[in-house]
Task: structure prediction
Amino acid sequence: MAVDSCSLPIDYIIKGDKAHDCKAAIELLEQLSNAEHVIVGRGYDSEKIRE
Result:
């Protein structure tokens, strides 16, 4: 789920229960191409996501 600076949801992706969150995170970040800043938890710290 992506939220704005007021913590209001602006976009989300629903995946199956066997899908890893990092794969959905990459798709979600691609949809947020106009975002100036992105804050994520440590679980999403990977080279693919940082690109």
Notes: Residues 1 and 7 are 10 Å apart (CA to CA). The chain has two helices and two strands.
